[in-house]
Design brief:
Distance between the termini: 26 Å
Radius of gyration: 21 Å
Helix content: over 70%
Membrane topology: Multi-pass membrane protein
Family: Belongs to the binding-protein-dependent transport system permease family. FecCD subfamily.
Number of helices: 14
Subcellular location: Cell membrane
Protein name: FecCD family ABC transporter permease
Oligomer: single chain
Strand order of the largest sheet: 1-2
Shape: globular
Keywords: Cell membrane, Membrane, Transmembrane, Transmembrane helix, Transport
Amino acid sequence: MDNHSQARYISTMSIGIILILLIVGIGLTYGELRLSWMDMMSTLLHRSNDSSHYIVIFQFRLPRIVLGLLIGATLGIAGAVVQSLTRNPLADPGILGINAGAGMFIVLFMFLIRDQIDITGNVAIMMMPLFGMIGGLLAALLIFLLAKDQNGLNPQRLILVGIAITTGFSAVTLYASLKMNPQDFEKAASWLSGNFNSANWLFVLSMLPWIIVLLPWLLCQTRLLDVMRLGDHTLLSLGVPLRKKRSQLMFISVGLVAAGVAISGSIGFVGLIAPHMATRLVGLAHRRALPLSGVIGALLVLIADFIGRTLFSPAQLPVGIVLSIIGAPYFVWLLSRRRQV
């Protein structure tokens, strides 16, 4: 049976990776400037003589695609971890307040601070993501503090506190947005809807340290995550340092999500949909479900971004809106299935 599960996992991962490569190829060739596959390959291999091809691929399309891959993978894996730690299959990293906290800090930065400082160059480009990261981490920290009881982090209280804090932060964000001038309001609304329009290699580099350090650590905790599905009393009787391990895993997940959300804006439903699809395909074992959640998350974001970028061209629909259109019916379907069970 295990050999059959492993074979199913390998075949599913292979199909997922092939689909990602296919979407990447289509994304590099399709757009306002159409390129053939030969043009795309010769440009990637630096054998093209057309400078416009280099600009289109290396300055616009490739950074956007790489950023979508990284953010989709981190949201998918973090979503699987959050669902296991809260023991709630309908949980999403968004309930941890990261999206709302990042959004509030970025809007407040644009409204109160940006015009008061004189910064240019790469530092200016990274100011908004930096404030988003700070806001996301502080929001999650506040929710963690309020969700603790005598046994440490309470999964059920975490969800309730997260919903309450997210609602409060969203209200502050809306109020500040309405006080902005029209140009800033448009930029804030664009960020809050989640998009990769500003994608560049600097954003990609800013995400890499988080992914290189935190993602392998999470992938090495698959056995612990399997055990975390058990009840608290069972875990304590097995000698698992529940309070310490749950907090560590949650903070690592928060760091990954905050790194992505700070750059791309609020992107929902990936952390909900990807883990569900992964467990339905390869089972509950995290050594298989976690990597597959990352692959599915990356695939979802790439497809949504490609649809938003090309379907309504020359206008662009933010990837967050496309994912919401896809994710909302899926969420309703999950709720109906749980009610039937």
